[in-house]
Amino acid sequence: MPRKREIFFGLWRWFVPGLRVKRFIVLIMIGLLVLTLAFVAWARVGPERNNFINWTARLIEFSESIGFGRWGLMGIGFFGGLLLGILGILGLNRSLLGALGSSPTETLDMIFRKRALTRGPRIVAIGGGTGLSNLLSGLKGYSSNLTAIVAVTDDGGSSGRLRQGLQMPAPGDLTDCYAALSDSPVLKELLTHRFTRGDINGHTFGNLLIATLAEQRHNFAEATLAVNEILDVRGIVLPASLEPAVLITHLEDGTIIRGESTMSSERAGRRIANLSLEPENITAPEAAIEAINEAEIILVGPGSLYTSLTPPLLVPALKNTIQKTRAKLVYIANIMTEPGETDHMTLLEHIQVIVHHLGRTPDAILVNTASIHQSTLEQYAKVQSIPVKPDFDAIRMRGIEVVETTLIRGGNAQHDAKRLARAIMRYALQRRIRRPWSLYFE
């Protein structure tokens, strides 16, 4: 078909009955016509130019004869034409988006996500458990340049069964992070749905999805990248290692504990001297290494110090890359001690564990300074958990910047996702790292 005929039939399709667009196109055209009349009245063009202007001039004369005046005609023309045009554009927009199964609000959110959020800071968040997923759920509102590097050493529950049966890294914390970065409430519920019967009793749908793709592609790295593409989450979620590794706990008395799930029970209050992974030479995803090299901020925490935060830092490639990168390293302090893991440890001792295993001192530490309700403290005390002692002077003496702010809501003892993300973005803004545009839309 010739090019001119293609253009003609392409334009003609807009006038096919049933499209529900013709009425809005006509409304836009009427609005443009009224605006044109108002412009002609403003320009004071005489009747000698052409028939259209001659007709407009007579309209002006009629308006003046009834005492309405040329300025009244101009006002009606400008505002009326503008109103008709806006109504036509809004109606056409709503009609077209409705035909595509979308809405103006959803489309605006998609544009904001694709354009504004891509200008947010490049952030790498390292950890696992509910701490990391909670952090990501807040950060996704400020930047889409997010990379979550997730601990995969869990050997209990659904993750442990899949890890042992399929010889794959633990998928549980990956699933939680995918759910946190998803925009769909239905998808969140689907990923975290836990089966309660049959052979898949105890497994979540997200864990099974990751396991299925890993089995199909014979490559755990490709499987996780495929999940990112399928779910279309804000940012990217990556495992800290591509092979299953065992977390080895070395106690000060020489005792060695194998496995993450047995650490608390077998430790029996004895101090931890060191952590290691077996095998030691496990590999990290190339995408994770690239993300760290390109990052502007690297976040560690919040989360379980020994079982969520430290294991990813033991992966050789990740450890070496973090040591060399110029990105700001920020540790997000836990609010409460964790029974069986960080009993009676001060904030400085938490940092020392990170420094010991990573080989780099954090540039800054983000600390909550808001008060916790007494009733909440009493509930935590029942399980031998107390607030982490904030020894700020000792921390500052080591050249670490302490950022004190409110990170909780309602006297709770858990980080509020939005407040935590906002504090991180303000830190980025103050350090001129990158302008988080969405801060200005709150």
Order of helices and strands: HHHHHEHEHHHHHEEEHEHEHHEHEHHEH
* Percent range for β-strand residues: 5-15%
Helical residues, percent: 40-55%
Beta strands, count: 10
Strand order of the largest sheet: 3-2-1-7-8-9-10
Q: Distance N terminus to C terminus?
A: 52 Å
Rg over C-alpha atoms, rounded to the nearest angstrom: 30 Å
- Structural class by helix and strand composition: alpha/beta
What is the count of DSSP helices, taking H or I runs of 4+ residues?
Answer: 19
The CATH first-level class of the largest domain comes to: Alpha Beta
Q: What fold name stands as the CATH topology of the largest domain?
A: Rossmann fold
Shape: elongated
Q: Give start-end ranges of low-pLDDT stretches.
A: 45-51
Count of the domains: 2
* Largest sheet, strands/sense/barrel: 7 strands, parallel
Query: CATH superfamily assignment of the largest domain?
Result: CofD-like domains
**What is the level-2 CATH architecture name of the largest domain?**
3-Layer(aba) Sandwich
In round numbers, the mean pLDDT is 83
